[in-house]
Amino acid sequence: MSLLVRGGTVVNADRSFRADVLCADGVIKAVGPDLDAPAGAEVVDAGGAYVMPGGIDPHTHMEMPFMGTVACEDFESGTSSMLAGGTTMLIDFCIPAPQQSLTDALDQWTEWGKKAVADYSFHVAITWWSDRVAQQMAECVDRGVNSFKHFMAYKGALMVDDEILFKSFSRCRDLGALPLVHAENGDAVFLLQQQLLNQGITGPEGHALSRPPHVEAEAANRAIMIAQTVGVPLYVVHTSCKEAHDAIKRARDSGLRVYGEPLAQHLVLDESVYYEKDWDLAASRVMSPPFRSKEHQKSLWDGLVSGSLQVVATDHCAFNLQQKRMGQDNFTRIPNGTGGIEERLKVVWHFGVNTGRLTPNEFVAVTSANCAKIYNLYPQKGVVAAGADADLVVWDPQAQHTIRQKAHHSKLDVNVFEGLTVTGVPRVTISQGRVVWKDGALDVRRGQGRNIRRPAFAPAFKAQTVWNERTRPHPVRRQVQVQQTP
Ligand SMILES: NC(=O)NCCC(=O)O
Ligand SMILES: [Zn+2]
Ligand SMILES: [Zn+2]
């Protein structure tokens, strides 16, 4: 079955041009002007619209067991939501419990992923260390995982120390896999939490107060320095504040391959919500790092414009109010996480492109192409070109939409963007060459998603390996001194 997207303007990260897009067998067969529709082809009208590579969200937590509960979004509802928002692939985090085998955990997540209605892939988290973990990292790489995540926060649960960071980053370097960090100083967070509780601060405001920007910046800086020492690129997830962004900028200025990922939520929502009288409202926004002030939002936008930050994600991690209420008397027990997978593209377009901060091409870069390049998916994903997967979004830049929990496709009972009216929405989403979202309706099939393998040694790693070899330390060769006896 073939499909012709007719009459639109193709927008890639590098340029825009008028062209039709012909898809068959799940891939793009041709991109060019006035293409003929093969007999029986479905024709999608893209008149007045942009045709862009489907979004890729590299940071989600479907069905994640966390903080005594399990995220309520599963791979079916999560991937359905993302398609309704124009995103056609996600990369989720497989998180082994401390002492659990990495490959057993990957088996578990792989099983859960079979429910997905669109393409997905996995990062694996390093939550403990042994020779066996090092060996299993190689087995994960053989199974198409080219990125390993490290939590520098969540003391007593997922957090790892500097020794593990050093050992795991070194292993990543040797395997050609990208280390990722959740950068917050978990010891400092823990101590601040105890102080605040002792002062009688038990509500969601304590969450924001216990995770100030310098706690994030310190960890980002530390992870960067360890990555530099080891000689490996680094990706800093959910960069939320100016000081962490500054650390990334400094590193890049000195020639390091460090990537920063702001979230759609951190770009537009601010910390004032944690001080709301309505506990449910404040708790529903609890995530780590917390939302920040306008000054930090500006820094994140500046980074996307200038290129010091590369990817906008969501960290979609869904906990309903009943789950959030586990922390009714103690903010440290509120499960951390918010949603946004359906809203990401709309929010970034509305506040990025409509305001003149980003060009449409830069929008494609930060929502799809850069991610595909960093995670070695390009040009299978992240570009509208012959040979690429037929994952597309037909974007109507004029259409308006008001974001409402009642109308979203997530299982979440709140929407952090509730009531926001955006201009610019996905008219049609195409996944694997099939129309899956059109006229406000989904047409998806459980199990249609594919587990996309991402090979190790992305181009940046090949360069880094050559550089490491050239700059490798060598012993000083000294002549053996013969001692003269007097
Ligand atoms: N971000 C958050 O609050 N929850 C999900 C887990 C994580 O990424 O830290
Ligand atoms: Zn995190
Ligand atoms: Zn996360």
From TrEMBL:
<dbReference type="Pfam" id="PF01979">
    <property type="entry name" value="Amidohydro_1"/>
</dbReference>
<feature type="domain" description="Amidohydrolase-related">
    <location>
        <begin position="50"/>
        <end position="436"/>
    </location>
</feature>
<dbReference type="InterPro" id="IPR011778">
    <property type="entry name" value="Hydantoinase/dihydroPyrase"/>
</dbReference>
<dbReference type="InterPro" id="IPR011059">
    <property type="entry name" value="Metal-dep_hydrolase_composite"/>
</dbReference>
<dbReference type="InterPro" id="IPR050378">
    <property type="entry name" value="Metallo-dep_Hydrolases_sf"/>
</dbReference>
<dbReference type="GO" id="GO:0004157">
    <property type="term" value="F:dihydropyrimidinase activity"/>
</dbReference>
<dbReference type="InterPro" id="IPR032466">
    <property type="entry name" value="Metal_Hydrolase"/>
</dbReference>
<keyword id="KW-0378">Hydrolase</keyword>
<keyword id="KW-0479">Metal-binding</keyword>
<comment type="similarity">
    <text>Belongs to the metallo-dependent hydrolases superfamily. Hydantoinase/dihydropyrimidinase family.</text>
</comment>
<dbReference type="GO" id="GO:0005829">
    <property type="term" value="C:cytosol"/>
</dbReference>
<dbReference type="GO" id="GO:0046872">
    <property type="term" value="F:metal ion binding"/>
</dbReference>
<keyword id="KW-0862">Zinc</keyword>
<comment type="function">
    <text>Catalyzes the hydrolysis of dihydropyrimidines and of the structurally related DL-5-mono-substituted hydantoins, to produce N-carbamoyl-D-amino acids.</text>
</comment>
<dbReference type="GO" id="GO:0055086">
    <property type="term" value="P:nucleobase-containing small molecule metabolic process"/>
</dbReference>
<dbReference type="GO" id="GO:0072527">
    <property type="term" value="P:pyrimidine-containing compound metabolic process"/>
</dbReference>
<protein>
    <recommendedName>
        <fullName>D-hydantoinase/dihydropyrimidinase</fullName>
        <ecNumber>3.5.2.2</ecNumber>
    </recommendedName>
</protein>
<dbReference type="InterPro" id="IPR006680">
    <property type="entry name" value="Amidohydro-rel"/>
</dbReference>
<feature type="modified residue" description="N6-carboxylysine">
    <location>
        <position position="149"/>
    </location>
</feature>
<comment type="subunit">
    <text>Homotetramer.</text>
</comment>
